[in-house]
Amino acid sequence: MSAILNSLRNLAGSSRANSAGDPGAKFGITPGEEGSGEGGYAEWLHAMRLVARLPAGVPQHFRRKDLHRTGCSLFCGTEGRENQAMLRRVLLAYARWNKDVGYCQGFNMLAAIILEVMEKSESDSLKVMVYLVEAVLPEGYFADDLRGLSADMAAFRDLLRLRLPRLAHHMDHLQRISDGGGVEPPLPDVFTMQWFLTLYATWLPRDSLLRVWDLVLLDGNEVLLLTALAIWDLLQDRILSARSADEFYSCMGGGAGAIWDAGDALVARVVAFGSAPELPRLRSLHRYRVTPPAPPSVPSHPPLQSAVSQSTHT
Amino acid sequence: MAKTYDYLLKLLLIGDSGVGKTSILFRFSEDAFNISFISTIGIDFKIRTIDLDGKKVKLQIWDTAGQERFRTITTAYYRGSMGIMLVYDVTNEKSFENIKNWIRNIEENASADVEKMILGNKCDLDSKRQVSKERGEQLAIEYQIKFVETSAKDSLNVEYAFFTLARDIKAKMEKKQEASNPTPRSGAHQLRANEQQRKPTSWLSRCNLL
Fold this sequence. Notes:
Chain A: It comes from Diatraea saccharalis. Chain A: InterPro entries: Rab-GAP-TBC_dom, Rab-GAP_TBC_sf. The structure holds 2 protein chains of 2 kinds. Chain A is mainly α. Chain A is built from 15 helices and no strands. In chain A, helix 2 (37-52) packs antiparallel against helix 9 and helix 4 crosses helix 5 (122-136). Chain B is an alpha/beta fold. In chain B, strands 2-3-1-4-5-6 form a 6-stranded mixed beta sheet, with helices on both faces. The relative contact order of chain B is 0.18. The interface between A and B is large, with 36 and 40 residues.
């Protein structure tokens, strides 16, 4: 589970000596053991991608023991208060690092999981947060009026129509016949918004969640949309029996439980969807519709280290 | 599946970030209070069916993220709302001042005859109070909106607020129904697909008499 985050942790230059995985193995969670240079890295990345798609995800010996904890998260209980202060420092550091994005509601979910995976190293967590928001997720997901997110929600509705046409047609129909017509927002939106903003943190049990995160980090952000497809696919029968928007919303409570219980079956479904080659086109279409493209701007970030040190002095 | 309710009402909670919208809804839907701060991500909803004067009234209550950047996304949920609760925090002056902005948002995005109510939440925190009850009442009079101070933590007036708003909406719907339909229908489970193709300007004319 979350071998990729662990390897990121190693790449982040943690001072703590900590070799995860079997030192005798030819292939581990740290790149570079397969050969030197770019070729070695590419080979490692390819292997990791294959491994992450296996029915059980990455092998057991790649996993960190402390991640098997279930139930109460780091942020409740007696230690909770201290950990919450840690969480606040990471969020504050990110807000200082990227003032355009600042703090977005939902970030606390992301940062909490990252902190847990990074074994409470605040500076490493900040680096992973920066990498995730600025290198992995689409541009503008969290900034301004969330236009990147809005575009992805719209692109996803199109993708749903292409990949799960019967279900998409049914949801469109329920939206249309809803009282008065024209006032009901698209039915999937309330869910996809939360999924995309929290990277499924509120919907998936920890094991499945980290496997999805592995796939996102290895294969890119289209996995976010493939995961949404997989969820709607699993809920298809339930939704097709709803005869109104109200019945749809009512049945989604049980749907959330079904997804929580699906676990690995959900991840298998994500992998089975493969890829979404049509996505770049849909995204650019909606990104353009949502807002005219802004002129390219030079990012003005303070050095990462200064954001970290500022955060630790708060 | 038979309809399990007589009326379906859609309500919306708006107000600044951190005023306690989610806590109010949590109190109303689960009768519980959670001190931990889990902010609303975008938009969320809860469902509770109440008994109102002998009718089963299903409330679909939408909770919104208060943060400014969510505004564009959340206003899409204004139009279908029949009742809107404007929430401020009595220990936060700014959240009270912003009620006027939230009202402007309603005027721009919601249907004209939407029922409104102002809630001054966290009234249990008397030592930290920045907004007096009188100022809340004054604002409500100014806008001719009902007002109540609530405490989601102490479960004060939360039920009252939802029941009052629901009752006002239901009364308005019934009045409208009588006006457009002088012969009273019994049962009233008669919503047909072809009735829904009209494009009315207000929720009243598309009221859910299900």
